[in-house]
Amino acid sequence: MKFIISLLSTPAVLLGVVACIGLILQKKSVTEIFTGASKTLIGFLVFGIGASAMTGSLQNFNKLFQYGFGITGVIASPEAATALAQSTYGFEVSLTLILGFILNLVFARITRFKNIFFTTGHSLFFSCVLVLIMQAHGFSSTVTILVAATILGFMSAALPQFCQPFMRDMTGGDEQAIGHFNMIGYGLSGYLGRIFSKHKEETTESIEFPKWLSIFRDFLMGLSIVMLLLFYVATIKAGQTFTQELAGSQHWLVFPLVQAFTFVAGMSILMTGVRMFLAEITAAFVVISEKYIPGSRPALDVPTVFPYAPNAVILGFISAYTAGLLAIVVMVSFPSVFPVVIIPAAHICFFSGGTAAVFGNSSGGWRGALLGSFVAGLLLAFLPTILYPVYGTLGIEGATFPNIDYNVVGTTLHKILQLIKPI
């Protein structure tokens, strides 16, 4: 019995078992079942290797940043934050993810919210947020998993509905939903765009952008540029003596170069692992939803809306990143109000700010795109400051979850739990 409990308490094995069940339901061959389950297990282990590399790099960045600027700098990256959390709470997060998938299907079956959330990487990050908040308030693993999975399942079905009026305008139908946990921000951007509804026809597609900005479409290249800048700024500010102590035998100016690319390499490994272990699980839930939930529609990742306004994506990235940089100035200026400084991640601003702009553009042209993405950028920067101290009670420091939905739902949960079981 101890062997079975230990086996199923290992997140990689647990996800492999779930993938195995899903493949059996799809009536796959024995070879396909073994291959799929093995890929899932291996994928989660690969995820852990990438997480370890990122964690080490982040720790060095934080030391440089804190020593140089005398403040705590936090990377706004859900991948990095998940990497920090998964080693301690991997079991709870895995079960929350699986049960949340199932409850998404249940809520889609019994409510008017017929959205099946297929951006499973975001479900993983949201699982992490909810588990960390529950654990910070001292709840048992069982209660944590049940509450977190219920919230995840319901939000996965309900939140895409907020964006659906604008999805209908863009796609000309109701067969597809957006599935990306910034949906409160995207819907808000659409509604803000309506302020400029008289200028709706003046869209972003009449704007010409420099071709070099397209480098940020490549996730790893954009991340590399930003991490190099961040590491060298922190290194120069910290000075040669302190940096050399961290670098050991490595030259102090080579150290930030290696650390920046180590972080990016870790991110690449981590995302490869995520794709491996989520692919089989997602396929199982696709089969189940198609068979048992009539009238359901897939909630898909943000690149599915990019073709409707490609220029809006570039404008949204610039606008959201500018908002993030302005937020840094505000946070540094008021350290008593903001004990940490949230550093915007380029890939988050590109995908989230860009998508917000697409929604704003659909209702208010380029003006709506600009306003909607700028507001989204501010929310991505300021909202995480509320929950960061909560994660800190569990030793999760140096990175945080910037996405708007995580923080709106997470902060609401935290405030409610404060009344029941204060930290």
UniProtKB/TrEMBL annotation:
Record carries keyword Transmembrane: yes
Heme in keyword set: no
GO biological process entries: phosphoenolpyruvate-dependent sugar phosphotransferase system
Membrane topology value: Multi-pass membrane protein
Residue stretches in coiled coil: none
Pfam families: EIIC-GAT
Assigned keywords, A-Z: Cell membrane, Membrane, Phosphotransferase system, Sugar transport, Transmembrane, Transmembrane helix, Transport
Segments traversing the membrane: 36-55, 91-108, 115-133, 139-159, 219-240, 260-288, 308-331, 337-359, 371-391
Any one Gene Ontology cellular component term annotated for this protein: plasma membrane
NCBIfam families hit by this protein: PRK12997.1-5
Assembly, per entry: Homodimer.
Similarity comment text for this entry: Belongs to the UlaA family.
Function comment: The phosphoenolpyruvate-dependent sugar phosphotransferase system (sugar PTS), a major carbohydrate active transport system, catalyzes the phosphorylation of incoming sugar substrates concomitantly with their translocation across the cell membrane. The enzyme II UlaABC PTS system is involved in ascorbate transport.
Name recorded for this polypeptide: Ascorbate-specific PTS system EIIC component
Organism field: Clostridium intestinale DSM 6191
Lineage: Bacteria, Bacillati, Bacillota, Clostridia, Eubacteriales
